[in-house]
Amino acid sequence: MADDQRPVFAIGHMRMSVEDVGKAYAFFVRHGMRGILERDGFAILELRGGTHLILNEAETTIEAGERAPFDLMVDDIDEAHRRFVADGVEATAIERGNIHDSFSVSGPSGYSIPINSSHVAGIV
Fold this sequence. Notes:
The chain has helices at 21-30, 77-86, and strands at 13-18, 34-39, 42-46, 52-57, 72-74, 102-106, 112-117. By secondary structure, it is an alpha/beta fold. The chain has a single domain (13-117), classed as 2,3-Dihydroxybiphenyl 1,2-Dioxygenase, domain 1.
């Protein structure tokens, strides 16, 4: 596949421990992730490009405002912000930057989840 310009690697799986897997699963599905599997205490969601977010029950208490173990990128930052706010999700104002425009939302278990504008280079 000499003509394939995509990077060789992609992120396969990332994990997030949450206090309530069902609520976290519903949150992420409602905001654009594809639900793959939901079981008691465990769930799998899919992101663009095929990366899977694995949710599991937290063994310890998560401190409100703790940064999520990942950030998310979207094509239309203004629309994403509008959709979160319309859904009643606490969101910071959009900060305009040199590389990304970004904002953060209060996600499942009180995690702060950064949302960034995409700056993808080429085909991914």
